[in-house]
Amino acid sequence: MQNRDGQQHGWQDFRKIRLLEKKLRDSREKEGRLSNVIEFKQPKKPKEPRKLSPALRKALIWAGVVVALVAIWGWFYVTGG
């Protein structure tokens, strides 16, 4: 069996893989996690979008009304309607 470079696979390659797997398994056991145990974690709750305070909301509504009235007055002033 050959790899992309045309070199033969040898038993050394498989031995390296086995050693890496053993190191990974050993490191997990040192951390207190077994390699055959799946950890289920609760997903984090998404943050609620920030809501405007009632006073700021009222102020924005009134500012919008004033801007609309000024725009209407300006339209009639310019067009002479």
Descriptive keywords:
2 helices, 2 domains, about 80 residues, mainly alpha
Fold and architecture overview:
It is a single chain. The chain has 81 residues and is an all-alpha fold. The model has no long low-confidence stretch (mean pLDDT 80). It folds into two domains: 1-38, no CATH class; 51-81. Helices cover 57% and strands 0% of the residues. It has helices at residues 11-30, 54-79. It is built from two helices and no strands.
How would you sum up the global shape? elongated
| Proportion of beta-strand residues | under 5%
End-to-end Cα distance, whole Å, is 89 Å
Oligomerization status of the protein chains: single chain
SSE topology string: HH
Bin the helical content.
55-70%
Fold topology:
Layout: H1 11-30, H2 54-79
Gist of the model:
The chain is an all-alpha fold and 81 residues long.
